[in-house]
Design brief:
Length: 793
């Protein structure tokens, strides 16, 4: 006979007295068609299906004629993959073939016994037991007491279910040992794998390694599941090097990674710094069409970004979308950071708009990437717009984000906004109150705007708050004092830095060098003394440049040694300032020596370019003194080309760039344009190419041929008459881009040149063959000469 329990068919309407009448079950057999009406509820039998947490009780199931409970299927390694331990067990047949059914009263003792033996009840009981084990003391007696209800020989399937349901990694290991002592396991690795997954769930890497050592001591051979569990645990614990270590020892145990493991290793190799292996696996994944998750794509984008291949990062993003993988916030944040590093703020804006259109909520990482990108690109409106969005959305900022905003405001010269942000920080809880970097950023903003008294007042507040000035604060102050020609304050700031035991770095010395270009001759000795105290080698070279009687070969040798010693980030700024010092003090041959050395050392690269259609001079990265020196060297080259019978191209151009500094109405282009006009050079600003001055072959040849070699350069830059710096007030003097000096996230050294060129009546010849002859032509204000660092780098 076959027993079947299911809800009864709908009863006649006269039976149901109300819509809330209870369900009724029927009991039938081949020998009886009697219909009885008993209120009851669905029941399942224990031998009908294996325990499965995700399979709900069926309305009707078929049982074998025997009443003996059949054992659960033996678990194997494949059933314990990264999914649930029971996810691969076959579900029961929802439509079992049966001919006979017996309706059982659920209130009868027989129904109660059937219910106790059901698979769902069994799984629920084991899950409750696992919860008890999680909350028990982590001792063997406590664990044994909880497990005593299972008897002396519990089924292996019960052990799998209990371990897989646990959340306490420490107790899970004790439970594993209890089962091993009482059960004869067919495959011991199965229980170890389930326990490893508990350790992974708890991110207990140390426990996982300890259990691995136990497996090795007992001679238990790991399988693919063992390694995939360990590798995924290493990823969760942010230990990519460990993931690589486990991946690379899989062949020792005869294990072969599957596609999912290979995909995980792209992320692990990328995060551990093995870029070549990560990209090699990614190429293989594309060819073999592996299934990659968003985390892996984010890692590949980051790998390309760190290696400087920003187009490759974008290509990965497009490939991901083509494969149907939806970008998440992590992908967008990684891509925003990548494009910010690339200096592509327009792409940052496009990506952020796409992210917003998908309904994804920006995180702190999103806003941080936006602020970095917009700050680097000087996108003031967009950067401050991000801050406004954060406030409107009620997003709480931490001190790091606030400092990023302050640094941005210092970069773009938004002093009022910086003051407001700093004021808001002081009203926040202790965790977000201003720190040393907050004070540094606002002091830098004041210094960039020439607000000496405000900067000094904030320095006093910083000292009262218990913060000692760091090298970035003192660097900003020295630059501010130098602009205001407060030489004694510069000396005092250096004294304070040395008193605090801070060692001057290349950026600090570069700031002193920049101050020297702005200092009157009568005060220059004090600044040179400061430079010598900060960097003796640099101070000695500066002395040589401004002193009479030093031969050019000695200058070249000393400068070469200095450039070999200083960091590459500051070489161009140093060279700009040193050339300007030479020009300021009428040491024109030495200026040419330094220019020639900078070209040979590739500090200045690609100053001149030639194509069949155009010869060009590129000076946008130079200071004014260096740019004018390079200009006249280039003109000398043009004259020599004509004398040698060489044909000029149809076009000749000078590229100055077109940007204006935040604190100056003048840029390099306007100063150079005035100079070209004064010497009657036929170069004119191109209407369709901003920052370019062009002339034709015919015009250039006519101009060069109309004047003698000495006449061509008779109004050279060395003879321009400038107002002395002491006649220029600090209010009219533009500020430097000092936040690059101060900001701890930047290594860029800014440099601005104040070229004070005295009259000269002597002529001299530089090593490059350029002749300088005295002649006064026109005057420029100091505002024309102090150019922002964005023109230098």
């Amino acid at each position: 006979m076959t027993f079947h329990i299911s809800p009864a068919a709908p009863l006649p309407s006269h039976v149901h007295s109300s819509p809330s009448s209870p369900h009724f079950f029927q009991v039938s057999s081949p020998c009886s068609r009697r219909r009885s009406l008993f209120p009851c509820h669905p029941i399942s039998l224990p031998f009908l299906s294996p325990p499965h947490p995700h399979v709900s009780p069926k309305a009707s199931v078929q049982a074998p004629t025997t009443r003996q409970t059949s054992p659960l299927p033996s678990p194997d390694s494949s059933s314990l993959d990264d999914g649930d331990a029971r996810s691969r067990l076959p579900p029961p047949n929802p439509n079992p073939p049966f001919k006979n059914s017996i309706w059982v009263n659920p209130n009868s003792p027989r129904a109660s016994r059937l219910r106790q033996r059901s698979s769902d009840s069994r799984y629920a009981r084991l899950a409750r037991l696992a919860a008890s084990l999680d909350s028990s003391d982590p001792t063997e007696p406590a664990v044994s007491g909880v497990l005593a209800s299972l008897g002396d020989a519990p089924p292996e399937q019960d052990a799998v279910i209990i371990l897989n349901s646990m959340e306490n990694s420490q107790n899970a290991v004790l439970v594993l040992r209890w089962f091993r002592s009482r059960i004869k396991l067919e495959k011991e690795v199965i229980l170890y794998n389930v326990t490893l997954k508990v350790l992974r769930k708890c991110k207990d890497w140390n426990g996982l390694e300890a259990l691995w050592e136990e497996m090795m001591e007992k001679g238990i051979k790991p399988d693919n599941v063992t390694f995939s569990t360990a590798i995924s645990c290493a990823r969760l614990c942010n230990l990519p090097a460990k993931a690589v270590e486990w991946f690379e020892k899989m062949p020792e145990f005869g294990c072969h990674p599957d596609d999912i493991t290979y995909s995980a290793m792209i992320d692990a190799y990328g995060r551990s710094g093995n870029v070549e292996m990560a990209l090699e696996l990614y190429d293989r994944a594309r060819n073999e069409k592996w299934r990659l998750d968003p985390v892996t794509f984010a890692t590949v984008i980051r790998v390309y970004s760190v290696s400087g291949n920003f187009d490759g990062a974008l290509n990965v993003y497009e490939e991901m979308k083509a494969l149907g993988v939806k970008p998440n916030v992590v992908i967008y944040n990684t891509l925003l950071d990548s494009m910010g590093r690339a200096g592509r703020p327009w792409q940052v804006k496009t990506i952020y708009r796409e992210m917003s259109s998908r309904g994804l909520v920006p995180t702190r990482a999103t806003y941080s990437a936006l602020l970095r990108a917009y700050s680097k690109a000087r996108y003031a409106e967009d950067a401050l717009g991000v801050y406004k969005q954060m406030n409107e959305r009620g997003m709480e900022l931490n001190v790091i984000l606030y400092n990023m905003l302050l640094s941005m405001c210092a970069d773009i010269g938004s002093v009022d906004e910086a003051v407001e942000i700093f004021r808001k920080m002081k009203e926040l809880p202790d965790g977000c109150r201003p720190d040393i970097w907050s004070y540094s950023s606002l002091i830098t903003a004041y210094c960039c705007s020439g607000k000496v008294s405000e900067a000094e007042g904030l320095l006093d507040d910083m000292l009262e708050a218990g913060f000692q000035p760091n090298i970035f604060v003192l660097t900003s102050l020295i630059q501010c004092y130098g602009k205001a020609q407060m030489t004694d304050s510069v000396v005092k700031s250096l004294d304070k830095l040395l008193e605090l035991g801070i060692r001057p770095d290349d950026r600090f010395c570069g700031c002193l060098l920049n101050v020297a270009t702005q200092t009157p001759a009568e005060e220059l000795g004090k600044i040179i003394g400061c430079i010598e105290r900060a960097n003796h080698q640099l101070g000695s070279l500066v002395k040589m440049l401004v002193a009479e009687g030093t031969d050019n070969e000695t200058v070249r040798r000393e400068a070469d040694e200095l450039f070999q010693y200083i960091s590459s980030e500051v070489k161009k700024a140093y060279c700009n300032c040193l050339i300007d010092l030479c020009v300021n003090h009428d040491q024109l041959e030495r200026a040419c020596v330094l220019l020639d050395l900078a070209i040979r050392l590739e500090i200045y690269r690609d100053l001149q370019s030639r194509s069949p259609t155009q010869w060009s001079l590129h000076v946008r990265s130079l200071s004014l003194g260096a740019a004018l020196t390079a200009l006249h060297v280039w003109m000398n080259d043009l004259a020599n080309s004509l004398q040698n019978g060489e044909e000029l191209p149809p076009l000749l151009g000078i590229h100055t760039g077109h940007g204006k500094h935040k604190y100056s109405e003048k840029g390099l282009a306007s100063v150079l344009e005035s100079h070209l006009r004064e010497i009657n050079a036929p170069f004119h600003e191109a209407p369709d190419k901003v920052g370019w001055f062009l002339t034709t072959k015919v015009a250039a040849q006519s101009w060069l041929a109309s004047r003698s070699s000495s006449d061509v350069f008779s109004t050279s830059f060395c003879n321009l008459s400038y107002r002395k710096p002491d006649t220029i007030s600090s209010q009219s003097t533009p500020s430097l881009f000092i936040s690059d000096l101060m900001c701890p996230h930047s290594l860029a050294l800014t440099s601005c040149v104040s070229s004070v060129l005295p009259a000269t009546t002597s002529s001299s010849t530089c090593p490059l063959g350029l002749t300088f002859v005295s002649a006064f032509s026109f005057s420029l204000s100091l505002n024309d000469l102090l150019l922002g660092a964005d023109k230098f780098f």
